[in-house]
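Tutorial, part two.
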Amino acid sequence: MPEFAFAFIDCEFGGLNPELHDITEIAAILTDYRLVELGAREWKVRARAERISAEAAAISGYTPEAWVEALPLRQVLSELGEMLPRGLTVVPAGQNVRMDVQFLERAYRSCALPFPFDYHVIDLATLFYAWSLVVGETLPALSLRQAATNAGLIDGAVPHRAMADSRLTLETFRYFVGRLAPRGPSEAAPPAPCVRSE
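Running the prediction step on this input gives:
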């Protein structure tokens, strides 16, 4: 897959509805198809106060004072697009990354900018679940916190800041990829019996 790159993306929002809430923060860590890091950026996004819930602000640390130098959405999206490698298909990756993609798709559309990412996504929650099936472990949750805790990368709360979450997602993703090595013949499950129809 050398023609692919991945953008480990995390966005913070003013709430969970892309029609009602604004993006407040975006971070992206670019990797090649082997998960080797190519670059990283983070932006605070100028948001409308009426589109940020008190609960979301408390979780992400948003305050008007801390966001005084935040950039306009269109500028942030343009800069995000400019950092993506040319000539490669860039796949969004992350924890529950479909939520981030929904907000980003709406944001690019509202700014009349072309969406720069592929339609596929790579999600940590799916990888974490696949790992649990391989090792026979029951999971209490599919959250980033649970995955990173199982990986031994954290012991406590997740920061809920865009770059911190992007970085933790990438590190957790690398951890579980490294533990999904193919099993030897003696460890593999026997093949399913072939059922022949007469």
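The chain has a mean pLDDT of 91. In part three we will examine how such features are distributed along the chain.
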